Amino acid sequence: CNLQPKDAAKMPESAWKLLFYTLSWSYGIYLLFFTDYPFFYDPPSVFYDWKKGMDVPTDIAIAYLLQCSFYGHSIYATAYMDTWRKDSVVMLLHHVVTLTLIAFSYAFSQMPEPGLVGVRAAQSRSLRWGSCAGSGASPGIPMGLFNPRCSLCPGRFWFRLYWFPLKVLYATCYSSLQSVPNIPFYFFFNALLLVLTLMNIYWFL
Prior knowledge:
The chain has 205 residues and is mainly alpha-helical. Helices cover 65% and strands 0% of the residues.
């Protein structure tokens, strides 16, 4: 493809992430729109009839496992395998925070929302890698794969800065207390989700 050396170095990472996000996005879409879960249209429903230690449905548990495995790998990959970037430290923090949220959420059956969180991440990143107009790419490169300005992609704004606060943060910060007034780890989970929101704003800017 006549890749420049810096682009050739990023190609395996980009190809892997495109593959993973396509699969996880598809599974997130399945959970949100092709099952009986009302999470997308009624985000507070994740807390209806919530009880400490309740069982996590198998299809949701698969989403937890999928995302947890990916972010566990991503911590190692960002530190030792991927091309180092100016925001790699922030990316490492993002992966640690996300992995903590997923693992503790599953352990405490706290917030059965990996479908919402996962589809938010997968959709915005899939759009980031696949649909932005290329900038400074060499001839023959598929446009958009290595564009440093892909943060301006509409999907990045729509999924991370609109749907994520509107659906996930609304449910966890407000609706959770309405359904379960003494819900445990309220501040712990929401503080981490707000940290992710600040990172999304940072990347968008």
